[in-house]
Amino acid sequence: MQLSRFSIGTGDRFGLEGEAQIAAFKELRAHGGEADIVWNKSNREHVIIGSSPADQAAAAAAAIQRTGWDGRWFVDADHITLKTVDWFIPHCNFFTIDVAEAIGKKASAEARAAYLERAKFLLEEGAAPVPVTQVDIETVADKFLASVQEAGTTYRYIAAKKPNDSFVVELSMDETDAPQTPAQVAAILVAVAAENIPLATFAPRFPGKFLKGIDYVGDVAEFLSAFEAETRIVLWASEKLGLPKGLKLSVHTGSDKFKLYKGIHEILVRLGAGVHLKTAGTTWLEEIVGLAEAGGDGLTLAKRVYAAAYARIDELVAPYANVVEIDRARLPRPEDVAAWDSATFVHALRHEPGSSTMQSDMRQLMHVGFKVAAEMGKEYTDALLEYRESVARNVQRNLYARHLLPLILG
Predict the structure, then answer these.
(1) Domain total for the chain?
(2) Which of 70, 198, 284, 288 could form an S-S bond across to 13 if both were Cys, CB 3.0 to 4.6 Å?
């Protein structure tokens, strides 16, 4: 399958926000934009919440049916490996293959030699959109080749169990200590082509920090330079390496990266390219914002979630240690939060572009604190239904006004 020019990963931790998310895409359409909806959820999130890929697919299909949405939509097995993919296969048509564990492993001597021979054309002037050196090629051979081969094995395993042309493939290499350079991205895509993986999107590790639920941390100009160079590279790879038409970059942990959206939009317009952006966890945060905004028992429940998350910070942060940076000294104490009114809580958690009231440490903790709500079970999901208007309004506004609008319409 092939994605549209724009596609947005819209995770829905508890499976109740599909209609509100579709409303955001309808609003985008009303203003002249269009994007594919990709409901993504990782194995880790299913395990924490106690849900399954079958639940994820059923929630998405139900939202489509209730709203009559006629746009393109996908269900993403997010960050899967060969070890975790099986229960996703019957229910998903988008597979984000995560090879983080294999990065740095050594390919066989034979595979390395074959790759070096295949990639040497990159050394010719003008062969790729950026200059590529022998060092770049050898770095990929030594650090990334084995992981691309693992991605090939995983892709073929999925393809053996799915009908032809029935799913989308993304390769994720964003969870590394250092960003890949544009030259390395070009050399990696040569290896992808050799594995015959029909990539729809590729998620490299970009410069800067992509932390959960807060704005981009780093040099915006440096990011945009890398993003433009790597966008040119995926367009080149689609034309010259035989990778699928429409291949595009994927920006992971892309929610709330408000500093970047205008520049990304301008690059995409200039190059006629597309992008996949993952905004997953902000939907869960907007549920909490909506409950707090509603006041009463909704606010009380939101405060309880925060107090429990504060007490369990080590446990909750551990699975996400590479994508959160929390200064514990700046976290508000639960006894202080208990005295907050609705507006104070909402202003501390809600992230508007340029907000001076949002508390980034609190927001990051709440972002990874969905396990607390999951353990509340029906009490939490009943609250989402009781305060549906407030919750849905916040989910829709966050997705449309803060993400879809600046990224796609500019």
Answers:
(1) 2
(2) 284
Cα–Cα distance measured from residue 356 to residue 347, given in angstroms and rounded to the nearest whole number: 9
Rounded CA-CA distance 402/329 in Å is 29
With 90 as the cut, is the pLDDT of residue 177 above it? Answer: no
Same domain flag for 84 and 70:
yes
Average pLDDT value over all residues in the chain:
97
11, 283 Cβ separation under 8 angstroms:
yes
Asked, for residue 200, whether it belongs to a domain, the answer is yes
240: enclosing H helix or E strand: helix 220-240
192 shares its domain with 319: no
User: Could you give the CA distance from residue 290 to residue 391 in angstroms, rounded to a whole number?
Assistant: 4
**Structural domain boundaries enclosing 213:** 6-281+401-409
pLDDT at 175 over 90: no
The one-letter amino acid code at 168 reads V
In this predicted structure, what is the pLDDT of residue 281? 87
Is the residue at 1 inside a domain? Answer: no
Same domain, 321 and 359: yes
- Beta bridge partners, 9, equal 38, 278
* Segment 23-59, tens digit of pLDDT: 999 999 999 999 999 999 999 999 999 999 999 999 9
Let me know whether 307 and 212 are in one domain. Answer: no
Burial 228-254 (b: 16+ CB within 10 A, else e): bbbbbbbbbbbebbebbebbbbbbbbb
In a domain, 59, yes or no: yes
